[in-house]
C-alpha cells in the first residue's frame, strides 16, 4: 500500500509540475501572439487577416513551442529526498550545469524574448496613438486644420500597465530561480523557511499575471 501511494504521489508530482510549466509557457506565448495581432490590427488594418484558420495556426504554434520547451523537464522529473527535513521533492534528474543551461534557455525564450517583444509592440502602439491624436484635425471640405486632440492618459496608462505587469509578475520569479545557479553563495545564509516563503510568494505572482490579464486585455 505504501509503495502504491509513493508511486501515485510521484506520478501526481510529475504531472502537476509538468502542467504548471507547460501552461505558463503557453500563456506567455499566447500573450505575445495577442500583442502582435493588436499591433497589426492598428498599424496595418488593411492587411490584417482575421480568418479562423490563421488564428488556429498561431494558437497551435504557441502550444507546440510550449510543449517543446517543457518536454525535457517533463521527461526527467522524479522524486528525490530533500535536505534539511524537506521531505521528498519532485526534481529533474540532471546535474547543476545542465539545470543552469536549461533554465537559462527557458528564461531567454519564455520571458526575456516575449517580454521584449511585448514591450516593443506596445511601445510602438503607444507612439502611433500619440501621433494620431496630436495631428491637426482636417474637417471635411475645409482648407484649414483644427486644433489637435489631446491623447487620453487612460490609453497610455493601460499600455504601460500591460508591459509593466508582465515584467513585475514573471521577472522576480525567474531571478529567484536563476540566482542559486549563478550566485549560490548568496542564499546559503538565508534560512530554508524564508526561502520557501519567498518561493511561494514569487510563484503566486506568476499566477497573478493570469488573474489580471482579463481586465487588461478586454
Written description of the protein model:
- Helix content is 74%, strand content 6%.
- With 218 residues, it is mostly helical.
- It has a single domain, classed as Rhopdopsin 7-helix transmembrane proteins (Up-down Bundle), CATH 1.20.1070.10.
- The strands form two sheets. It has a two-stranded antiparallel ribbon.
- Strand 1 and strand 2 form a beta hairpin.
Layout of helices and strands, plus pairs?
Elements: H1 2-43, H2 52-76, E1 77-81, E2 88-92, H3 96-134, E3 137-138, E4 145-146, H4 153-182, H5 192-217
Helix pairs in contact: 1-2, 1-3, 3-4, 4-5
InterPro entries: GPCR_Rhodpsn (IPR000276), GPCR_Rhodpsn_7TM (IPR017452)
Keywords: Cell membrane, G-protein coupled receptor, Membrane, Receptor, Transducer, Transmembrane, Transmembrane helix
GO molecular function, one term: urotensin II receptor activity
What is the CATH superfamily? Rhodopsin 7-helix transmembrane proteins
- CATH level 1 class label: Mainly Alpha
Shape: elongated
> Multimeric state of these chains?
single chain
Low-confidence stretches: 1-6
**Structure classification:** mainly alpha
Radius of gyration: 23 Å
Mean pLDDT: 80
The biggest beta sheet reads: 2 strands, antiparallel
Number of strands: 4
Q: What's the CATH architecture name? A: Up-down Bundle
DSSP helix fraction: over 70%
- How far do the termini sit from each other? 50 Å
**Order of SSEs:** HHEEHEEHH
With helices defined by DSSP (H or I, 4 residues minimum), what is the helix count? 5
Q: How much of the polypeptide forms β-strand, as a percent range? A: 5-15%
- For the biggest β-sheet, the strand order reads 1-2
Number of domains: 1
Q: Which fold name fills CATH's third level, the topology?
A: Rhopdopsin 7-helix transmembrane proteins
Subcellular location: Cell membrane
Membrane topology: Multi-pass membrane protein
GO biological process, one term: neuropeptide signaling pathway
InterPro entries: GPCR_Rhodpsn (IPR000276), GPCR_Rhodpsn_7TM (IPR017452)
Amino acid at each position: 500500500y505504501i509503495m502504491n501511494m509513493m508511486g501515485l504521489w510521484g506520478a501526481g508530482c510529475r504531472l502537476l509540475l509538468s502542467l504548471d510549466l507547460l501552461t505558463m509557457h503557453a500563456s506567455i506565448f499566447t500573450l505575445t501572439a495577442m500583442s502582435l495581432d493588436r499591433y497589426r490590427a492598428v498599424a496595418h488594418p488593411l492587411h490584417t487577416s482575421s480568418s479562423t484558420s490563421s488564428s488556429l495556426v498561431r494558437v497551435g504554434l504557441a502550444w507546440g513551442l510550449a510543449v517543446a520547451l517543457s518536454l525535457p523537464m517533463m521527461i526527467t522529473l522524479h522524486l528525490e529526498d530533500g535536505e534539511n527535513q524537506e521531505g521528498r521533492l519532485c526534481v529533474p534528474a540532471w546535474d547543476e550545469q545542465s539545470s543552469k543551461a536549461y533554465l537559462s534557455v527557458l528564461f531567454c525564450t519564455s520571458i526575456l524574448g516575449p517580454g521584449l517583444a511585448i514591450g516593443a509592440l506596445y511601445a510602438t502602439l503607444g507612439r502611433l496613438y500619440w501621433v494620431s491624436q496630436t495631428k491637426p484635425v482636417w474637417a471635411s471640405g475645409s482648407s484649414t486644420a483644427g486644433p489637435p486632440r489631446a491623447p487620453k492618459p487612460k490609453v497610455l496608462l493601460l499600455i504601460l500597465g500591460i508591459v509593466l505587469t508582465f515584467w513585475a509578475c514573471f521577472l522576480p520569479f525567474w531571478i529567484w530561480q536563476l540566482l542559486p545557479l549563478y550566485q549560490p553563495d548568496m542564499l546559503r545564509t538565508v534560512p530554508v523557511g524564508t526561502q520557501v516563503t519567498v518561493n511561494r510568494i514569487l510563484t503566486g505572482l506568476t499566477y497573478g499575471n493570469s488573474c489580471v490579464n482579463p481586465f487588461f486585455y478586454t
